[in-house]
Design goal:
The protein is an alpha/beta fold. It is 34% helix and 20% strand. The protein folds into two domains: 44 residues, no CATH class; 201 residues, Rossmann fold (3-Layer(aba) Sandwich), CATH 3.40.50. The strands form two sheets. Strands 5-4-3-6-7-9-8 form a seven-stranded mixed sheet, with helices on both faces. It has a two-stranded antiparallel sheet with strand order 1-2.
Length: 270
């Protein structure tokens, strides 16, 4: 989520303030260190769509998961795919265009669910919390989450759900910020409310460990280049941006990349 300093409304209490955060200082302090109820998170993301339509992933593509797409396009077209937190449905639309026929998308906001249905009309669409995936066991060959897991307070419940609904040998594709790079950026920008919208952040090693505890064996994919959203966030002014946009990311070690794109396979029962 790209944030420039501006006058804005707090997404929870609607009070006006000037800054880069989505919550006013009071709301940010009120929920810190507490369990944030689902309804409150849902309202936050719904308000985000209303208040920042040109910043949210519901109405435009800022963070195309390049490495995930490259890997997904190698799969046979009949596989059953679920995208959780499918946002505006852009990825599902691309998969439908590429010939995939068994597509399901879920999101927690009415706004996103409406956009998914409009943009990927052949996909099944479900209003669902990614922490409580109520599909039957072994329903999908592939699950995708692109810029989703960092938003989930109980990400472990989500991983357990994915492990349950994936078939044995099935694949879970994830794109998420790299914790170390992202936390440095939030600190630099004074984003005191980042705990609210990104409560679950991982390094590659941490993610691998978290997935392994649910029988999901991870390997890193190589993002071909930095995404639009990341280029806008780069410190050091605009002079560096064209140069970095062309930097070959294949050569950058996973540990220092701004985001992680990975695939995990559901192992056979041990
Ligand atoms: Zn507030």
């Amino acid at each position: 989520m790209v944030v420039e300093r501006s006058e804005r409304r707090c997404l929870l209490c609607m009070k006006r303030f000037t800054g880069r955060t989505f919550l006013c200082r009071e709301c940010s302090d009120r929920y810190r260190g507490q369990e944030v109820p689902f309804e409150l998170r849902q309202r936050f993301y719904q308000e985000l769509d209303f208040e920042f339509p040109d910043r949210s992933n519901t109405y435009d593509v800022y963070n195309r998961p390049e490495a995930l797409l490259t890997a997904l396009l190698r799969l046979p077209r009949h596989v059953a795919i679920l995208e959780v937190g499918a946002g505006g449905g852009f990825l599902l639309a691309e998969l439908a265009d590429a010939g995939f026929t068994d597509l399901t998308g879920s999101d927690i906001t009415e706004t996103a669910v409406g956009e998914i249905a409009r943009r990927a009309p052949d996909a099944d669409v479900v209003l669902a919390d990614a922490e409580h995936l109520s599909f039957l066991p072994e329903t999908f060959d592939v699950v995708i989450s692109s810029d989703v897991i960092e938003h989930l307070p109980d990400v472990d419940a989500h991983f357990a759900g994915v492990a349950r609904i994936l078939r044995t040998g099935g694949l879970y594709f994830i794109k998420t910020p790299n914790r170390v790079a992202a936390e440095a950026y939030y600190r630099l920008r004074g984003l005191h409310d980042s705990y609210f919208w990104h409560p679950s952040m991982f390094t590659a090693g941490e993610l691998s460990e978290a997935l392994a505890s649910h029988g999901l064996e991870m390997r890193a994919l190589k993002p071909p280049r930095i995404t639009e959203a990341q280029i806008v966030k780069l410190p050091g002014g605009s002079a560096l941006r064209p140069l970095l946009a062309r930097a070959p990311m294949e050569r950058v070690p996973t540990s220092v990349r701004p985001h992680l794109e990975i695939v995990a396979r559901k192992a056979r029962q041990r």
